[in-house]
Amino acid sequence: NAGVTQTPKFQVLKTGQSMTLQCAQDMNHEYMSWYRQDPGMGLRLIHYSVGAGITDQGEVPNGYNVSRSTTEDFPLRLLSAAPSQTSVYFCASSYVPTELNEQFFGPGTRLTVL
Amino acid sequence: GQQVMQIPQYQHVQEGEDFTTYCNSSTTLSNIQWYKQRPGGHPVFLIQLVKSGEVKKQKRLTFQFGEAKKNSSLHITATQTTDVGTYFCAGLHSGGYQKVTFGTGTKLQVIP
């Protein structure tokens, strides 16, 4: 099993550009989520999904879109990048969405917006 | 909104000293988890606590969940250089279906 994979590892964007961060898991997990990590602020939940076709907003959803067309994939779209979106982005997955199960994290994407 | 605070934000200890990080929630938690993130790495699950007053141990690590289920702690006995990293708690708030709130993290540096 590859676990949770994320691409790209690094990305530099200019203000106003759009892009998609990819996330995939091969563990047949129902629950997937996106976090951003900024210094001194821990991990903040952007969006999450409890299964294919179902998504919901987390703590900091503005400027981001998600979709979940398959169990395996959960891409995060930046619609119009802003410098405030410079951060490290982590995708995570877990088995059962109705309990707090162990979350498996991907290696992260380091994004810089100029 | 629901908040989970951790103290201290940073901690430097001499190798062999003990270390404790505290996690405090503004609301009651259903469960709490602890994660460790090595420098440059991603968070890795350590443990989950569910019951009020629960205490769990993993070798030199002791985890506690408060009686009111609003706070938790992680204690490391006799730190080693391999303990370096940032420790996060993560809580599922009662009634907060599926939304996980991470604490702000405590960065531990161990001086050999």
Beta percentage of chain B is over 45%
SSE pattern of chain A, N- to C-terminal: EEEEEEEEEEE
| Shape descriptor of chain A | globular
Largest sheet of chain A: 7 strands, mixed
Helix/strand order of chain B, N-terminal first: EEEEEEEEEEE
Poorly predicted segments of chain B: none
Which percent bin holds the helix content of chain A?
Answer: under 10%
Number of strands of chain B: 11
Distance between the termini of chain A: 36 Å
The total count of helices of chain A amounts to 0
Q: What's the rounded overall pLDDT mean of chain A?
A: 94
Q: Which chain pair shows the most residues in contact?
A: A-B, 28 and 28 residues
Structural class category of chain B: mainly beta
How would you describe this protein?
The complex is a heterodimer of chains A (114) and B (112). Chain A is mainly beta and 114 residues long. Helices cover 0% and strands 49% of the residues of chain A. Chain A contains no helices and eleven strands. Chain A has strands spanning 4-7, 10-13, 19-25, 31-37, 43-51, 54-57, 64-66, 76-78, 87-94, 104-105, 109-113. In chain A, strand 4 and strand 5 (43-51) form a beta hairpin. Chain B has 112 residues and is mostly beta strands. Chain B is 0% helix and 57% strand. Chain B has strands at residues 4-7, 10-14, 19-25, 29-37, 44-49, 55-58, 61-65, 71-76, 85-93, 100-102, 106-111. In chain B, strands 2, 4, 5, 9, 10 and 11 form a six-stranded mixed β-sheet that branches. A five-stranded antiparallel β-sheet of chain B has the order 1-3-8-7-6, with no helix packed on it. In chain B, strand 4 and strand 5 (44-49) form a beta hairpin.
